[in-house]
Amino acid sequence: LQSEIRVQEREMGDLEAAELEHVIGFTGQDHHALTSHPRDPNILLHGIGHVVVIADQTDPHKQDLLRGHDSEVVSVAFSPSGRLLATGQRRSMFRDGEQVIVWEYESRKPVYRLTGVEGTVKSLKFSEDDRFLAAFGDGSGNGNDIAIWDMQNGGVAQFVKCPQNVTCMCWGPTVVADDTRRTKTPRYSLFTFHSVRVNVHFLEYDLRTMHYALKTQLVKFPSAGLTRTYHCCCLAPSLGELVAGTSVGEMMVFNTDNLIYRATLPISTNGIISMAACGDHVYVGAGDGKVKKLQGNDQYWTIIEETQVTGRVTSLTVRADQEEIILGTDAAIMYTVRMSDLALRVLQRSSVSAIRGVSFGSRSDVFASITADGTMSVIDLSDYSVLASARGPCAASCVTFDGEDRVLTGWEDGGLRIFKASNGDLIGHITKCHRGKVSCIVVGSEFIYTAGEDGTMRVWSNRSLEFVSQFAEHSKPITGLVADNVHKNLVHTCAGDRMVITYDLKTGRRANFKSHKDGAFTGMCQRIDSEQELLTSTTDGFVLSWDCDVATPVMALDCGRRMKFLCTAISSGGRFVAVGCEDMAVRIWDIQTGEIVAGCMGHSGVIQQVSWSPDEKQVISCGEDGALCVWNFYLGGMDSARE
Q1: Starting from the edge strand earliest in sequence, which strands make up the sheet with 272-278, in order?
Q2: Residue 220 DSSP label
Q3: Do the Cβ atoms of 85 and 75 come closer than 8 Å?
Q4: Range from 140-154, 256-270, 513-527, 539-553 carrying the lowest mean pLDDT
Q5: Shortest CA distance to 369 belongs to which of 623, 38, 67?
């Protein structure tokens, strides 16, 4: 799969008519999927699907995407110098090794592809001098393993088999191994937390064997013992201390010099999930959405301030300027928190679930999206901020942005809900448009047309939302709906039953009919040049052009590979058609020449929909990975078909 992806990316690299401008997405479901650069306070690192995102907070249009994983990226880390970064993925169904990739930050190129972690990579930690990288996975029922790699050559320095699962870890202080020796060598310490014990692993260079050797010791607990599930840990501001957060909301304090447990302090409810230390304070993020600022040492700690955010605080990282902390929650929100007073600012809002649809209105700088968890958002492309949002009662299925201030949405309960784009207020509602979910919505001058998985197309008054008529000739869910560009009384539909049907609103009957024997239809749009042909995407990998007077397709576009085409959209000028493909790429064809002019690789999940901006200069795609990809299209505005 990896070799196929690389070949695909090389093929796409030759097609330079489109370029990925920005990816909007962050789920916040994993504990180590967000971190900041240790030297540059403006750089953030996080994963979205299979892609690693390096984002500049000062310029929302400045992003770098790193591709190399074949499963969801769940753990990221910068080395203390900022020279290297490491990324780890979820358990892959395609391979057992190379779950961890080490990249060079400046070149954005992979340096090492590392094997040694079983299952999903749960945590990645660099030693304070960048020399070693430690990682552990979720393992199996018999425990998990810790792998330590040497960053000078990418080889495994040590491999530790753990009969009890490691749940978190951190590097301790690095000291000189033996002051009496003429050759001074460092001694590293790595603390690993298990349910009934805490281990410290000392990594020291052995001059006799000329390689690093590992010795493990237990941290001493009271004789009665303590059984805890640890979520996070870090070195405390006081020298010789380490703190850890537990699933019951306690902060545990350990002495790293004497390797002894010191105290248990109740801090929060619903568990401490993330923590970081800076200056004289420790900041903890909890499962109840609270961020607390603590000060103290040993057994004496005080909560100085606290603030509340939306969702469980799964990631917490200190900016390089030590003025703010960046945190991520499982509600898919990133915040910046000012250290001095814990003042909050929303940095980014994203979707936890799949994004089902995107649509432009009359403006090229604003679009609407709808998600599987029922969230409608209106987004400004100038800074990627959310202008308005609304939440529905169930999963959403489709969206259409009408003009400047009306967003029509279809839902899995069969309802149609209309929101005001400027503030997200509900301004119209049809309770039952269809039996089952609404699959398509088109707005005309007089009517609103809806189609559903029940195979029917229905017509509603644009003003009063009253029912006008319906057509029910499809035997499977309708996947495409188009109001004719020229004849306002004609409406076209396509469906999974491999039929394209044209209805005449004046006569109330079917006006035309086409069928395709080799694959079902997944989407439809209409040309504005030539004979106003309909374009349909199919499951057998074609974009077919249909003339009303010809029974068979008059043109077929394909990419030379067997795959499903999942959705399609035509540009406002009518010359280009964008298609979401099964291989998670968006391909753009020049209809006049029949050639692919752009291949866009950015998604790591099934593409749900594509939409063109009215000025033809951008394409937006959305997918099951919860990501919105914004593509700049450089051929937009050239001699359009309409001209």
Answers
A1: 272-278, 281-286, 290-297, 300-308
A2: B
A3: no
A4: 140-154
A5: 623
SS3 (DSSP) at 446: coil
The number of helix segments (H) and strand segments (E) in the chain equals: 1, 57
Q: pLDDT (tens digit, 9 = 90+) per residue, 322-334?
A: 999 999 999 999 9
Whole-model pTM: value is 0.85
Strand partners, 456: none
Q: Which residues pair with 171 in a beta bridge?
A: 190
Which helix or strand (DSSP H or E) is residue 113 part of? strand 109-114
At 10, the pLDDT band (50, 70, 90 cuts) reads: very low
Cα distance between residue 542 and residue 559, in whole Å:
8
Question: Are residues 501 and 473 in contact, defined by beta-carbon separation less than 8 angstroms?
Answer: yes
**Cβ proximity of 433 and 457 under 8 Å:** no
Distances (CA, A) of 240 to 192, 233, 317: 16, 14, 21
* The predicted structure's pLDDT at residue 142: 55
What are residue 218's DSSP bridge partners? 199
CA distances from 136 to 119, 120, 230, 415, 522 (A): 9, 8, 14, 47, 42
**251: Cα separation from own chain's centroid:** 31
**In the chain, what are the helix, strand and coil shares in percent, each to the nearest 5?**
0, 55, 45
Spatial distance between the Cα atoms of 311 and 289, rounded to a whole number of angstroms = 5
Taking Cα atoms as reference points, which of 1, 2, 27 lies closest to residue 110? Answer: 2
Least Cα distance to 375 among 36, 77, 67, 626 occurs for: 626
Report residue 621 CA to chain centroid gap.
Answer: 13
User: What is the Cα–Cα distance from 376 to 40, expressed in whole angstroms?
Assistant: 34
User: 522: which residues sit within 8 A by CB, 6+ positions away?
Assistant: 479, 480, 536, 537, 538, 539, 564, 565, 566, 567, 568
- Unique residue bearing structure tokens 């840990």: 233
The pair of three-digit structure tokens given for residue 607, joined into one six-digit string = 């593409």
Q: Give CA–CA dist 410/370, Å, rounded.
A: 9
pLDDT value of residue 140: 63
If you write DSSP's letter for every residue of 343-385 in order, what string do you get?
-EEEEEE--SS-EEEEEE-S-SSEEEEEETTSEEEEEETTTTE
Report strand pairing: 565-570 vs 355-360: unpaired
* Token code pair at residue 329: 């929650």
SS3 470: strand
The mean predicted confidence, pLDDT, of the chain is 91
Three-state DSSP class for residue 334: strand
Task: Name which of 518, 521, 549, 517 is nearest 535 in CA terms.
Answer: 521
One-character DSSP codes across 553-602: -SEEE--SS---EEEEEE-TTSSEEEEEETTSEEEEEETTTTEEEEEEE-
Torsion 472-477-482-483 (CA) sign: positive
- What does the pLDDT average to over 502-508? 95
Note the Cα 540 to chain centre separation in Å.
28
What DSSP designation does 219 have?
Answer: P
In what helix (H) or strand (E) does residue 502 lie, and over which residues does it extend?
Answer: strand 499-504
pLDDT on residue 93: 74
What are 443-494's pLDDT values in tens digits?
998 999 999 999 999 999 999 999 999 999 999 999 999 999 999 999 999 9
Q: Which tokens go with 552?
A: 């068979």
The total of other beta-carbon atoms located within 10 Å of residue 593's CB is 9
Q: What is the rounded CA–CA span in Å between residue 250 and residue 228? A: 9
